[in-house]
Amino acid sequence: MDQEKIEKLAKALLEAIGEDPKREGLIKTPERVAKSFKKLFGGYDKNPEDILTEFDGENYDEMIICKNIDFYSTCEHHMIPFFGRISIGYIPNKKIIGISKLPRIVEIFSRRLQNQERMTMQIANTLNTLLKPQGVGVVVEAQHLCTMARGVEKQNASMTTSSFTGLFKKKLKTRSEFLRLIE
Length: 183
Hints:
Elements: H1 3-16, H2 29-40, H3 48-51, E1 54-56, E2 64-75, E3 81-91, E4 95-97, H4 101-110, E5 113-114, H5 116-131, E6 135-144, H6 145-148, E7 159-166, H7 167-170, H8 172-182
Parallel strand pairs: 2-5
Antiparallel strand pairs: 1-4, 2-3, 3-6, 6-7
Helix pairs in contact: 1-2, 4-5
């Protein structure tokens, strides 16, 4: 990430909206923006394959769920934040992963310019590809500041997306169990 270029662009943006970047409260704003972008868009520098740790599942073949994973992301259409919670479940096929890896995968994909639908699928598809489980379920519920602070200005609207693979997609009973357990 080009921090210097981001600082220059942030300064130009301040000028474009009619602000004085030399004003006391704004002098360090371009530097702070560049620093915050490093965190907000840090997912571009990471690859899920690099963080995945697999273990022998010791014949465990029931659902594993990590729910209510908080996330923050940035809408690619307006560059305004959206945030919420993600629940992930999978049924192992001989291998399990460290439970911290599920929130880390969420962090990788949420820390990019995103839309909620793509992020939901990326998480499910990545787990499906890397872990090769019997199935994956991902449910994302989020609030979008582009809906809350501009446009329709609806403060309590939330959006839910889901992505299912394998048994979660093929078997209604499996999907229903997952949805019941994450409530």
